[in-house]
Amino acid sequence: MDFLFNTNVQFFIAAYLVGGIPFGLLLAKKFAGVDIKSSGSGSIGATNVLRVVKESNPVLAKKLGAATLALDALKGVLVLAVAYFFGVSEATLWGISVLAVIGHCFSPYLNFEGGKGVATGMGVMMFMLPVETIIALMVWAVGAKVIRISSLSSLTALAALIAASFVLHPEMAHAPVVLIGFILFYKHIPNIIRLIKGEEKRVV
Q1: Whole-number pLDDT of residue 55
Q2: Which of 51, 104, 147, 160 is placed for a possible disulfide with 139 were both Cys, Cβ 3.0 to 4.6 Å?
Q3: Where are the membrane-spanning stretches (predicted)?
Q4: Has residue 114 been placed in a domain?
């Protein structure tokens, strides 16, 4: 058990446990009295919080959706910031980034189920690759405004981020970026199927 006293291992565990906190589920239950796991898409992310709570309280839905988005993005950044302060290596920071996303998508508090990972992924990417993430957010904003399909906007932004990382940082090891991209893509497979069938709902 000596490995548990290793600083890197401690940060990896923290990243997974903090990343797994289902803020959307907790906020919706606390302030709206609804279980988003059994409503809408069943996701714990901001989009489903907005969609489900909006049915009964549109004003509250926007507030809880925004809070969920912010908290999901910040939970990975929090561990990264502390680890950076302790002077860990860049490889360790990338490990923390990946585990924070895994924690959100496969939460230890929800029988290893979770959300799509977009907000948490964008949060850690903003810390690690800020320019690429800004590009991705611009792509997402355009998609959200024009397409108004959350999953398609997110996947397009993800593709833009990965492509930008190869263009702007061709020298870096891209495995963590690609791995996070793969996880997010995997979690969106049901959405992709609905997109192909023309059944994916628009955000209104």
Answers
A1: 85
A2: 160
A3: 12-28, 124-143, 155-186
A4: yes
